[in-house]
Design goal:
By secondary structure, this protein is an all-alpha fold. The protein is built from six helices and no strands. The longest helix is centred in the N-terminal third of the chain and has 24 residues.
Length: about 130
Amino acid sequence: MGNHGKRGALAIIIAVAVPMGLVLRSYGGPGWLRNGAGAVLYEVVWIAGAQMVWIYAGTLRLAIAVLAATCAIEVLQLSDASWLWAARSTTPGRLLLGGNGGFDPMDFPLYGVGCALGYAVCRPFRATR
């Protein structure tokens, strides 16, 4: 599979994971399922997107970078900075940055699971030179 095919496969992963995550987040089931599925798929989407952009980069390195970034975003939920409130008042901002006061330390292990899954799913689509 060439690089275009690999990028296409990564785009399909994103195209499947985003709506799946949104559906699961709005599903009327237990909160742990809604939050857990959303957090795990959030990581998969970011890793697939990063691998699309940096097709030759090591998937493990990208997964670790995504984990660090999303953990930092989680910690930012403790902040009441006005620019964060403004960003989170929009739907894209809320989806990307979480809700104000939405800090949940239980998200950290979910991000770890999501990064492990993202690594496993995206690793086959890393280009080699």
